[in-house]
Design brief:
Blueprint (H helix, E strand, L loop, with lengths): L6 H17 L2 H8 L6 H13 L18 H13 L7 H14 L2 H12 L5 E4 L15 E5 L2 E8 L10 E7 L10 E7 L5 E7 L5 E14 L3 E2 L5 H14 L4 H17 L1 E2 L2 E2 L4 H26 L12 H23 L26 H7 L10 H12 L3
Parallel strand pairs: 1-4
Antiparallel strand pairs: 2-3, 3-7, 4-5, 5-8, 6-7, 9-10
Helix pairs in contact: 1-4, 4-8, 5-6, 5-7, 8-9, 8-10, 9-10, 10-11, 10-12
Length: 397
């Protein structure tokens, strides 16, 4: 990447590179590098270190902890973080609800929530998807009926990632059922300890819990927890999703995972020597490396034409999301193919009684991630949705 940067940007990249490797505990970065599951404490610790130095929420306004960086500098900040295997700031806080509050919230809501959100004193959960309103989010049915100085919320949200840790949840709720479906939605903040809120975990194929169902039964929410204007939530949701997609290509993370696959392939013996000596495998690996490089060039080209301080979502981010998610899946598939039968036993014997992996180093998460990463072409707007945005907003079709 350094060859694509000017001198000032290269110096900035070196600064971030050094910071991540000296300030964030090595044991946390090792767990990321070897595919181990992070604890809540790991994520909180890393984000608080970043926030202490002003690096947790650089995309926010400066007065709320942001940095007056160029789009390219923000890319460097994220890429070097991923390459150093530092846990990224919790997306629900840093990339989703934080920017919405900073842009559309009242001064009171900003002062109340933004400092705690940046420092991860509040762990936010996302209440968007419902059983019959996932990609068709505008069809959501969770209702919020105003009664005096409270909204009474009833309904259900699902696929609530890490909701088991949630202190608060930011919600899209229907406040007017008598208008066009996009026009009757509001953006509401709900304390998850409020009576009537129930979180039910959804166990995944590997036995872990990453997503949850959240139920709301006559939950009373103060009116002052409304962000912006009533029935303007769809506008705020589009803003949120546009911000989410900009960094969702995860190029740095894909570089790390591709390097892991390459390193293990170099240790895998074949009749020709190692798996890297196999022409078919080498061609496949080279193709992925070339595609990842092309995606990075595309991202830098887009960033170089963006204007600092412009809060409007860039529709070109859909290109990055579409291609980046496809490459993430391709790389997880590559690592599984490198492992072969060694990676199959990933639930019961992935770790010994002492907590050590029975699988090869840096491959303990291979099968788990292969299945889990089927989601990346769905969340943040499915690939079909991204193609729709590209065709309309970029190609004018």
């Amino acid at each position: 990447m350094d060859q694509l940067l000017n001198q000032e940007e290269r110096e900035f990249a070196q600064h971030m590179r050094t910071f991540y490797r000296t300030e964030v505990p090595e044991e946390i970065r090792y767990r990321v590098a070897t595919g181990q599951e992070l604890s809540k404490d790991d994520i909180v610790t890393a984000q608080r270190i970043l926030n202490k130095h002003g690096y947790a929420v650089p995309n926010w306004p400066v007065e709320w902890g942001g940095q007056d960086w160029t789009p390219v500098q923000r890319h460097i900040w994220l890429e070097e973080m991923q390459l150093a295997c530092v846990p990224q700031p919790l997306a629900f806080n840093a990339s989703m609800v934080g920017p919405v509050i900073a842009t559309f919230g009242s001064q009171e809501i900003k002062e109340r929530f933004l400092p705690a959100t940046a420092n991860l004193d509040i762990w936010w959960a996302q209440g968007f998807s419902e059983p019959n309103a996932g990609s068709d989010l505008a069809s959501l049915k969770t209702s919020a009926v105003r009664k005096g100085d409270v909204y009474v919320v009833n309904g259900q949200k699902t696929w609530t990632t890490l909701g088991q840790y949630g202190d608060w949840i930011f919600m899209l709720v229907r406040t007017d059922p008598n208008v066009k479906k996009q026009a009757g939605i509001s953006f509401l903040l709900i304390d998850m300890t409020t009576p009537g809120v129930t979180v039910r975990p959804i166990e995944l194929i590997d036995g872990s819990v990453e997503v949850n169902e959240v139920f709301f039964d006559n939950v009373e929410v103060p009116v002052e927890n409304l962000v912006g204007e009533e029935n303007k939530g769809w506008t705020y949701a589009k803003f949120l999703l546009g911000n989410e997609r900009t960094g969702i290509a995860r190029i740095g993370m894909s570089k790390v995972n591709l390097a892991r696959a390459k390193a293990y392939a170099a240790m895998t013996k074949t009749a020709r020597g190692t798996l890297l000596d196999d022409p078919m495998f080498s061609a496949r690996l080279t193709k992925l490396e070339a595609q990842l490089t092309a995606l990075e060039f595309t991202q830098l080209r887009i960033l170089s034409t963006q204007v600092s301080g412009n809060d409007q979502p860039d529709p070109r981010s859909s290109v990055l999301k579409l291609r980046g998610s496809q490459l993430q899946q391709d790389i997880t598939e590559l690592l599984v193919d490198v492992l072969g039968p060694q990676g199959l036993d990933f639930i019961d014997t992935a770790t010994t009684a002492d907590g050590f992996s029975d699988l090869p180093t840096a491959s303990v998460d291979a099968i788990r991630d292969y299945f889990n990463y089927r989601k990346v072409t769905i969340y943040g707007g499915s690939s079909e949705v991204q193609r729709g945005i590209i065709s309309k907003a970029i190609l004018g079709l």
